[in-house]
Design a protein that fits this description.
Largest sheet: 10 strands, mixed
Number of domains: 2
CATH architecture of the largest domain: 3-Layer(aba) Sandwich
Distance between the termini: 10 Å
Strand content: 15-25%
Mean pLDDT: 81
Order of helices and strands: EHEHEHEHHEEHEHEHEHE
Shape: elongated
CATH superfamily of the largest domain: HUPs
Helix content: 25-40%
Radius of gyration: 21 Å
Number of strands: 10
CATH topology of the largest domain: Rossmann fold
Low-confidence stretches: 44-55, 121-128, 269-276
Oligomer: single chain
Length: 295
């Protein structure tokens, strides 16, 4: 993660986006960055069914709507005392995820800070997920705030959790976590993916097999902790077993961490069908902000 100078914060005027904007302002003030607030107007006629014959919204109506949204954004800025770090306000039209991703390139933003609505099940499949698409397409790290996050996120961060699966993207995320830590503590967590019901296995030596997996993971996590020791501060190394996203959320809540830092791999559109992925579950339900870092 490069030096943080420009933060892009998409706002849809929901409570999660208000929390994201508050976090963006707090973060900008702590590191000397500037914030651009973005609202993408939803155009229902971009998604009309075949044969739908309603007339398009007139340009005059669009201009009025754009002006109203910009005024509302400025009122939010004033309410959150963000004027001293505000770099600009953008009100645009088009598919929200695509416009956010377009503005996440190095020329516009070093970090995207956005809220997520935590939808699951049918609602998520029917409505799609702007956050999920941004995580897949963004060209810079993305910091998300879920409905379960505190109303006023804590900045600077004092306790960080970095889940690792030993992939290159996870190692990149760990490097970022350690750079962000400064005086904060970092916990490295690896979860051995293991079913709750061991009877699902037919092997006789199930406990022994799990023990071997855990010992191997423990050695690798300890090696990562030693590698990232700085100024005498060594990250904590932890091993858990179970469903990865559940254990990550559980550890984050028990340890009262301020930030989860995770690596995200490049994903193709087909992957969007598999909405139970670890990263997406954590992003949607974490009790603290989540920073996702692409390799």
């Amino acid at each position: 993660m490069t030096a943080l100078r420009r933060i892009l914060c998409p706002v849809d005027f929901s409570e999660p986006s208000r929390r994201a904007l508050a976090l963006a302002f707090s973060l900008a003030k702590s590191v000397g960055a500037r914030v651009t607030a973005l609202h993408v107007m939803f155009d229902p006629f971009d998604f009309r069914a075949p044969g739908y014959s309603a007339e398009p919204v007139g340009e005059k109506t669009r201009v009025v709507e754009r002006d109203c949204r910009e005024l509302e954004l400025r009122e939010w800025m004033h309410a959150l005392h963000g004027g001293d770090v505000l770099d600009g306000i953008l009100v645009e039209e088009g598919p929200a995820a695509a416009r956010i991703a377009d503005l996440s390139d190095p020329g516009h933003a070093d970090l995207v800070v956005m809220g997520t609505h935590g939808l699951s099940g049918f609602d998520r499949l029917a409505l799609g997920s702007v956050t999920e698409k941004v995580l897949r397409k963004a060209r810079c790290p993305v910091l998300t705030v879920s409905p379960a996050s505190p109303t006023v996120p804590h900045v600077p961060f004092t306790r960080l959790l970095c889940p690792v699966d030993f992939s290159e993207s996870a190692k990149t995320a760990l490097q970022v976590a350690c750079r962000l830590a400064d005086e904060a503590g970092v916990t490295i967590l690896h979860v051995v993916d293991w079913p709750d019901d061991e009877s699902l296995f037919e092997q006789v030596a199930v406990p022994e097999y799990r023990h071997i997996l855990e010992k191997d993971a423990e050695a690798r996590v300890n090696a990562l902790a030693a590698e990232h020791t700085r100024a005498g501060r060594k990250p904590l190394a932890r091993i858990a077993h179970g469903k990865p996203y559940r254990e990550i959320l559980k550890n984050a809540q028990e340890e009262q961490v301020d930030l989860i830092v995770m690596g995200v791999r490049g994903r193709n559109p087909l992957d969007l069908a598999f909405f139970g992925s670890t990263t997406n579950q954590v992003v949607r339900h974490a009790s603290c902000p989540v920073l996702t870092v692409r390799q």
